[in-house]
Write a structure and sequence with these properties.
The chain has about 210 residues and is of the alpha/beta class. The protein contains nine helices and six strands, in the order βαααβααβαβαβαβα.
């Protein structure tokens, strides 16, 4: 059981950076992930590495229309979204966090659900570039990273998740017990490693990409 990438061909690989927006990363943000802010230097370093070796880099942003017509069940699940206080298209909070290293020519995929594939042209862009391997990083590990990389596996991409470049926030007790951000992150990685993707550190990913480029 479990899945491992034996090598990474930079020309056929993409890194997707999930939802590094102010509403997730800024201090005091409605959906704040302090761990997401803390791992940002590792993620930015990985993004720069990808550019250097020719790995395509995509970014996503989870957004909803101001009139709420695309919120669906998110309005039930997340009071800040329902109230128009988080992830609203065109607001400062929905923009990528200021410290995220994204170049203007790198694609930004707006999405309205956890998965970057749902209701977007993300797959079309990947196929058009000849990508067969997708590596995911960002926030949150258990929701948008998990959903995106699982959807990638469903579509027969080779998949990886960067364990030290993903993060989440504490989960409150909703009748089944509370979990710290660290525990949610670790549990999600265990599930992903068993059923969905190669869970590897950014250093391990770089070593595979350097091997593939040689």
């Amino acid at each position: 059981m479990g899945y491992r990438l034996s090598t990474v061909d930079p020309a056929r690989t993409a890194l997707v950076v999930i939802d590094l927006q102010h509403d997730f990363l800024a201090p005091g943000a409605p959906l704040e992930s302090p761990a997401g802010r803390a791992m940002l230097p590792v993620l930015n370093d990985t993004v720069r590495f990808c550019r250097d070796v020719g790995i395509a880099v995509f970014f996503t942003a989870h957004v909803h229309r101001p009139d709420g017509t695309d919120m669906g069940r998110f309005a039930d699940l997340y009071p800040p979204i329902a109230a128009g206080a988080a992830l609203i298209e065109g607001t400062p909070g929905a923009a990528l966090y200021a410290e995220v290293d994204r170049r203007p020519d790198e694609p930004l995929i707006p999405k309205h659900r956890y998965s970057a594939f749902y209701g977007t042209d993300f797959e079309m862009q990947l196929r058009g570039r000849g990508v067969d391997t997708l590596i995911a990083a960002g926030v949150t590990t258990e929701d948008c990273v998990h959903a995106t990389i699982r959807d990638a596996m469903f579509r027969d991409f080779r998949t990886g998740v960067l364990s030290d470049a993903c993060a989440t926030y504490d989960h409150p007790d909703l009748g089944h017990g509370a979990m710290s951000a660290a525990d949610v992150h670790a549990a999600t990685l265990v599930v992903l490693a068993q059923s969905t993707a190669d869970v590897l550190t950014s250093a391990e990913f770089k070593a595979l990409a350097e091997k593939g480029a040689a």
